[in-house]
Amino acid sequence: MEFLKERGPYPDLRVNIGSLVLQNPVMTASGTFGYAREFEPLVNLHRLGAVIVKGISLAPRQGNPPQRIVETACGMLNAIGLQNVGVERFISEKMPYLRGLDVPVIVNILGDTVEEYRQLTERLVGVDGIAAIEVNISCPNVKKGGVAFGADPKMARAVTEAVKTAADVPVMVKLSPNVSDITILARAVEDGGADSVSLINTLIGMAIDLRRRKPVLANVIGGLSGPAIKPVALRMVYQVAGSVSIPVIGIGGIDSAEDALEFILAGASAVQIGTANFINPRVSEEVVEGIAAYVREHDLQSIRELIGALEA
Amino acid sequence: MSQHQEKARIIRFEQLSADNVRLTLEAPLIAAAAAPGHFVMIRAGNGQDPLLRRPFSLHQASSNGQIQIYFRIVGRGTDMLAHCRVGELLDVFGPLGRGYRIDRQAPACLVGGGLGIAPLLFLAKRICQSGRDHHRDLVILGGRSSGDVEPLVEDFRQFGRSLQCATDDGSFGRQGLVTDVLKAEQLEPGTVVYACGPEPMLARVHRICVDRGLSCQVSIESVMACGMGACLGCNVDAAGGGYLHVCIDGPVFNAEDLVWNS
Ligand SMILES: Cc1cc2nc3c(=O)[nH]c(=O)nc-3n(C[C@H](O)[C@H](O)[C@H](O)COP(=O)(O)OP(=O)(O)OC[C@H]3O[C@@H](n4cnc5c(N)ncnc54)[C@H](O)[C@@H]3O)c2cc1C
Ligand SMILES: Cc1cc2nc3c(=O)[nH]c(=O)nc-3n(C[C@H](O)[C@H](O)[C@H](O)COP(=O)(O)O)c2cc1C
Ligand code: FES
């Protein structure tokens, strides 16, 4: 209350992601925030806009052998291999805690086939405490020679339709940046019924150990994340926001309120913070505070005034 | 276990050898929660490069709110930490992981190689404070040369253990490996071996313990991004198949739970 007296009323940071209303535009990105409980000792979870949990598949997955991660210039590569506890254990072991949190929980899902995405979504129907589903389509389609769903507009649309038809909560589709024109994919998932799109997932990269003359990662290639990818992500968010009419969620290298505000100006209704959680577990909460300070200092009615407000 | 993120003031800087540095930090919350074998994640610099925190075992944690880390300069992050000055603040996060499980009845044998000596001082202190008879305990320290071992000998002596040292070049203690010393010792049945060091050394320690039917706990390393179970990047092969994660299942493991290549 001291806080309110000193600085005036807390600014309006609410944003709408379709029918989903968030108290502020800052979410934690899938795979970088565990199942939220890991961060409980350090973060006031209820201050976040939403929490997105580690990607879930139908069956548990062990993931890739070590080495799975490596630091690169201003970033890191990961090839975790989608290790997760599987949907049944997720519902029985992780959801009871998540549902008790005072923050919307978004469940990230992944699959090998369209059918798997559909079954997974059906399994989540009626599970209490899920605010939305985020669909990771950057996975190889095992029935189509391993080409990522997210690289093929037809497949991306088919996955979206399957999930959307089965789901009882809003569906956010997470786009892969590893394509030549991301706006084509964005429009394909919009046509498939997506309520929003989030982007970007990691950019595919590689690191080599010169001394051993071997790839650093057991998987040879991995996904690049962190500040190194921010300019690419910003450009893609800007392009996608100009080509679809559903809300866009910006992801990629965000580690400050300034970064988040840039994505919002580029057209993002909200943002996700990934790798930065590893370096500063409190970063998401600090970004919320920083955005609030910006809104207050610039006498804005609400953060929504800034969405896509980039001047030409 | 409670974890804390603290801005820790550097209150002492010790260059123990050309490559090895010991920092004493004021981190009361972490110090109070810490146990031997726990580690902390420290940010080198405030910029985006290097991006990730660096993991370090707790070398000491005292009731006066101080912690120590003891590290070797091997790359950019450790080099930056080695250039910090007394009075500067470091962003430290911890304590993390599962530490050594101290067996209060069994005789203890601590085996540290190189920078693997780091977590053992804290362990020696806790074992000593446990108040039991420890005349049968033994500490074996080794390194490349005297600089890795000699500066730490006094610190271990204060905990009253019998101490054996070995160096690769024979410049301090006997010439050879810590595992040579371990092999030559007649350890009492039921002794628990607590080890930390490079992987080939730990593999040999494990083998010796298996041969003699002794239980062995090892502290191991892996690359890490988060240190707290969120990124899943720190996996190692588990003896029973599948993976273990060094930051949450370890860094201290029962040696038999891991896969040893050598
Ligand atoms: C749980 C844990 C506890 C540790 N405790 C200590 C300690 O008490 N004292 C100490 O000196 N070191 C310790 N380490 C290792 C320490 O974290 C690395 O030496 C440090 O991260 C290197 O950072 P850098 O930027 O200087 O080197 P980089 O430039 O990142 O790398 C330099 C070289 O070190 C290797 N390296 C980098 N990170 C690691 C790592 N995490 N483990 C092993 N090798 C690595 C690289 O492959 C490279 O060859 C610990 C590691 C872990 C996982
Ligand atoms: C270690 C790690 C694991 C990830 N796991 C997932 C995942 O399971 N599902 C998913 O959709 N994205 C996953 N991502 C991608 C992030 O959610 C995010 O899109 C990406 O890292 C870019 O954002 P950043 O630069 O802020 O990290 C992962 C990223 C990292 C670094
Ligand atoms: S270092 Fe991130 S899970 Fe272990």
From TrEMBL, chain A:
Tell me which Pfam families the record gives. DHO_dh (PF01180)
Report quaternary structure and partners: Heterotetramer of 2 PyrK and 2 PyrD type B subunits.
Q: Can you name this protein?
A: Dihydroorotate dehydrogenase
- Which source organism does the UniProt entry give? Desulfofustis glycolicus DSM 9705
Instruction: Report the gene name.
Output: pyrD
State how the cofactor is bound: Binds 1 FMN per subunit.
Describe the reaction catalysed, as an equation.
(S)-dihydroorotate + A = orotate + AH2
Q: What positions does the entry give for substrate binding?
A: 54, 78-82, 136, 201-202
GO molecular-function terms, A-Z:
dihydroorotate dehydrogenase activity
Identify the GO cellular component terms for this protein.
cytoplasm
Q: In which pathway does it act?
A: Pyrimidine metabolism; UMP biosynthesis via de novo pathway
Dihydroorotate dehydrogenase catalytic domain: which residues?
13-293
From TrEMBL, chain B:
Q: Which UniProt keywords apply?
A: 2Fe-2S, Electron transport, FAD, Flavoprotein, Iron, Iron-sulfur, Metal-binding, Pyrimidine biosynthesis, Transport
Q: In which pathway does it act?
A: Pyrimidine metabolism; UMP biosynthesis via de novo pathway; orotate from (S)-dihydroorotate (NAD(+) route): step 1/1
A Pfam family in this protein?
A: FAD_binding_6
* PROSITE patterns xrefs: FAD_FR (PS51384)
Which cofactors go with this protein?
[2Fe-2S] cluster; FAD
Protein residues bound to [2Fe-2S] cluster: 226, 231, 234, 247
What CDD domains has UniProt attached to this entry? DHOD_e_trans
Task: Please name the GO terms that the record assigns under molecular function.
Answer: 2 iron, 2 sulfur cluster binding; electron transfer activity; flavin adenine dinucleotide binding; metal ion binding; oxidoreductase activity
The UniProt annotation places FAD binding at 54-57, 77-78
User: What is the UniProt remark on how the cofactor binds and its stoichiometry?
Assistant: Binds 1 [2Fe-2S] cluster per subunit. Binds 1 FAD per subunit.
Q: Which GO terms describe its biological process?
A: 'de novo' UMP biosynthetic process
- Domain (FAD-binding FR-type) spans 3-102
Alphabetical list of InterPro entries matching this protein: Cbr1-like_FAD-bd_dom, Cyt_c3_hydrogenase_gsu, Dihydroorotate_DH_ele_sf, Dihydroorotate_DH_Fe-S-bd, Dihydroorotate_DHASE_ETsu, FAD-bd_FR_type, FNR_nucleotide-bd, OxRdtase_FAD/NAD-bd
Keyword GTP-binding in record: no
Instruction: Report the function annotation for this chain.
Output: Responsible for channeling the electrons from the oxidation of dihydroorotate from the FMN redox center in the PyrD type B subunit to the ultimate electron acceptor NAD(+).
The record's subunit annotation is: Heterotetramer of 2 PyrK and 2 PyrD type B subunits.
Q: Which HAMAP family match?
A: DHODB_Fe_S_bind
* Similarity section: Belongs to the PyrK family.
Show the PANTHER family listed in the entry. Answer: DIHYDROOROTATE DEHYDROGENASE B (NAD(+)), ELECTRON TRANSFER SUBUNIT (PTHR43513), DIHYDROOROTATE DEHYDROGENASE B (NAD(+)), ELECTRON TRANSFER SUBUNIT-RELATED (PTHR43513:SF3)
The protein here is known as: Dihydroorotate dehydrogenase B (NAD(+)), electron transfer subunit
- This protein's species is Desulfofustis glycolicus DSM 9705
Q: What is the lineage of its organism?
A: Bacteria, Pseudomonadati, Thermodesulfobacteriota, Desulfobulbia, Desulfobulbales
